[in-house]
Amino acid sequence: MPKKATKDRKRLLANLKQVNEELDHLRNMMQGEVDVELDEGDTEIVEREKTAALITVLERRQQDIEHALRVIELGQYGICERCGGQIQKERLEVKPDATLCMTCQREVESINRRNRTPRAAPARW
Ligand SMILES: [Zn+2]
What we know:
Elements: H1 3-32, H2 41-73, H3 89-94, H4 102-115
Helix pairs in contact: 1-2
Bound molecules: zinc ion.
Zinc ion binds at residues 80, 82-83, 85, 100-101, 103-104.
């Protein structure tokens, strides 16, 4: 494995650890808040929804990082999964779990946005 990939792998593993810890913390919070006084119910519900949303975001991030780690194992790190081009170095610095180049990421996002309205959009790739 090239040196660069080892460094990225370390960085991703550190990120993953952070995300896992945060998730543990949030999940504990969700469990701890089950006994809610009735008159506090509304705020508690809003808080729980916020926590739940954050958990979803972090779970997504966890999957992205785990995916990027697998890509490293395959020796494909830094190569766009969609067009096969190089992912910009600057992009990987900011988002080490990126497996798409900027152009493809934008395209995928706009497709996802368009597909969001009908809930079960078929995957195209
Ligand atoms: Zn691409």
